[in-house]
């Protein structure tokens, strides 16, 4: 009897230790509004210097490490690619993740190398897919995959906007904001039915990203491609005003869809789903497989940045509860949505560990700290499967350390008051006429890009609501900002 009591008491103490840590305190507002990005590792009691050292180690290994560590490979003097080592190919997913990591780490040289390889090798410049990017190439730049993949385009757009706002725009393909807007244009210039089999990247009727904008693959979605935090920013920064409302609608729709995609008990989402939220039976992808790992990361990022829907907290808690019940250091990687192990996959993968940890940004449960600590204690991936596991590890370490940030349009410096006549333009009755063709950007005081154009001579400002705007004129290396009052 004494032994039984001692065993029970020991188990009770162990359980109390696991749950004794104070639950995470959810922020009063999202990071977009507060400019505060939580370092969940430090909040969990991990030394700040150790966190920063890990971040630098991640950069050193994945970009400049040994043959068994790196995924970044330079080509010639000004290009580079990210290699899927296990499959010996280059994917738009990995290139776009690589670019996002570079802009978050403030590595413009590597960013430009990757983007130049993407533009020169991946983008379709003619034919039915013109404007999109091939999802799969060999390392020599030869196209293998026969279509785009929507997640690559989404991360390309967001990484380019952040690059524009962090580093400023240059010319040609390094006019980052113009390039982001060009992809947005190509993503929605077709229709839902398809032209020669190619559709828009987003189904406009359902306001959801499609799995692949090509024939039948455009009739359903991939829950892990839903990035409402990105769409919310596009609704502010897309220079085409006709699309901004649509992006805001997509953000709200994705927030509504996450609970519909998820199993009501486990919270697990499938790889593929129909637009009504039901799992899509496509080669076992109705289950929680590798794509679906990313869903909790997307949910948590959206909540951390915008705190738009408290249902995201309930969903993250449900997912955490499921994986915690399977063993914090032993849960597998593939499940049926009801929680049954699928395909005997019991591998405890670093990529999934990383994504689950980021859920802590949208959790109010004490067990969230167990996921944060388990992630920090997980070795950096190397070897054959370092591509997917490794990139997810890096992205989520950025999220949890407070280093995956929104870079907003830079506030113009040296703003000049506008006179009706000056050397650059004439401004009369809400109409601007430039002295020569100009490259310009018009930004609201809240940072929303209202118009970006090159070689423009006239602008009718009456198309905008009454208020104050900043007119940015770019003439070679020189920029001039004017305050414009629209009546």
Question: What does the model show?
Answer:
The chain is of the alpha+beta class and 487 residues long. The chain has two domains: 377 residues, Glycosyltransferase, CATH 1.50.10.10; 72 residues, Immunoglobulin-like (Sandwich). It has 15 helices and twelve strands. The strands form three sheets. Strands 7, 8, 9, 10, 11 and 12 form a six-stranded mixed β-sheet that branches. Strands 1-2-3-4 form a four-stranded antiparallel β-sheet. The protein has a two-stranded antiparallel sheet with strand order 5-6. The chain starts with a helix and ends with a strand. The N terminus is likely disordered.
In short:
This protein has 487 residues and is α+β, with helices and mostly antiparallel strands. The protein has two domains: 24-400, Glycosyltransferase (Alpha/alpha barrel), CATH 1.50.10; 415-486, Immunoglobulin-like. The protein has helices at 2-19, 31-34, 40-43, 48-64, 92-104, 108-122, 150-167, 176-187, 228-237, 241-261, 295-306, 311-325, 350-358, 368-376, 386-400, and strands at 72-75, 79-84, 89-91, 136-137, 202-203, 208-209, 415-417, 425-428, 431-444, 449-460, 467-475, 478-486.
Architecture blueprint of SSEs:
Elements: H1 2-19, H2 31-34, H3 40-43, H4 48-64, E1 72-75, E2 79-84, E3 89-91, H5 92-104, H6 108-122, E4 136-137, H7 150-167, H8 176-187, E5 202-203, E6 208-209, H9 228-237, H10 241-261, H11 295-306, H12 311-325, H13 350-358, H14 368-376, H15 386-400, E7 415-417, E8 425-428, E9 431-444, E10 449-460, E11 467-475, E12 478-486
Parallel strand pairs: 7-12
Antiparallel strand pairs: 1-2, 2-3, 3-4, 5-6, 8-9, 9-10, 9-11, 11-12
Helix pairs in contact: 4-15, 5-6, 5-7, 5-15, 7-8, 9-10, 11-12, 11-13, 13-14, 13-15
């Amino acid at each position: 009897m004494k032994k039984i009591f001692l065993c029970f008491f020991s188990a009770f103490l162990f359980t109390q230790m696991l749950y004794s840590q104070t639950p995470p305190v959810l922020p009063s507002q999202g990071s977009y509004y507060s400019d505060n990005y939580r370092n969940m590792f430090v909040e969990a009691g991990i030394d700040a210097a150790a966190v920063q050292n890990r971040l630098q180690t991640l950069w050193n290994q994945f970009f400049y490490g040994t043959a068994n560590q790196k995924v970044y490979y330079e080509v010639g003097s000004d290009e580079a690619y990210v290699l899927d080592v296990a499959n010996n190919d280059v994917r738009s997913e990995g290139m776009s993740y690589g670019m996002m990591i570079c802009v978050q780490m403030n590595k413009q040289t590597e960013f430009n190398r990757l983007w130049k390889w993407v533009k020169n090798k991946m983008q379709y410049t003619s034919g039915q897919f013109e404007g999109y990017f091939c999802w799969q190439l060999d390392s020599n730049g030869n196209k293998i995959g026969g279509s785009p993949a929507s997640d690559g385009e989404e991360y390309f757009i967001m990484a380019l906007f952040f690059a524009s706002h962090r580093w400023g725009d240059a010319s040609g393909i390094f006019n980052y904001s113009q390039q982001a807007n060009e992809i947005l244009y190509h993503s929605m210039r077709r229709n839902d039915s398809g032209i020669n089999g190619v559709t828009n990247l987003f189904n406009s009727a359902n306001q959801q990203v499609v799995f692949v904008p090509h024939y039948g693959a455009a009739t359903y979605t991939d829950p892990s491609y839903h990035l409402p935090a990105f769409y919310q920013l596009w609704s502010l920064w897309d220079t085409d005003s006709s699309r901004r409302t649509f992006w805001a609608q997509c953000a709200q729709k994705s927030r509504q869809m996450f609970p519909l995609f998820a199993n009501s008990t486990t919270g697990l989402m499938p790889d593929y789903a129909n637009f009504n939220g039901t799992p899509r039976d496509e080669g076992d992808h109705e289950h929680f497989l590798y794509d679906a790992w990313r869903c909790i990361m997307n949910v948590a990022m959206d909540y951390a940045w915008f705190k738009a829907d408290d249902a995201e907290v309930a969903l993250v808690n449900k997912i955490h509860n499921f994986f915690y019940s399977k063993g914090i250091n032993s849960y597998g990687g593939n499940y049926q949505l009801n929680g049954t192990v699928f395909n005997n996959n019991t591998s405890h993968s670093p990529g999934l560990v990383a994504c689950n940890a980021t859920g802590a940004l949208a959790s109010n449960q004490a067990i969230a700290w167990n996921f944060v600590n388990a992630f920090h204690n997980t070795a950096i991936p190397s070897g054959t499967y370092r591509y997917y596991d490794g990139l997810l590890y890096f992205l989520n370490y950025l999220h949890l350390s407070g280093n995956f940030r929104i870079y907003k349009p830079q506030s113009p410096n040296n703003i000049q008051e506008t006179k009706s006549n000056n050397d650059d333009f004439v401004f009369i009755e809400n109409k601007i006429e430039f002295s020569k063709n100009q490259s310009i950007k018009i930004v609201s005081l809240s940072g929303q890009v209202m118009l970006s154009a090159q070689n423009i001579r006239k602008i009718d400002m009456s198309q905008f609501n009454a208020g104050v705007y900043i007119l940015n004129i770019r003439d070679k290396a020189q920029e001039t900002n004017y305050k414009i009052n629209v009546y």
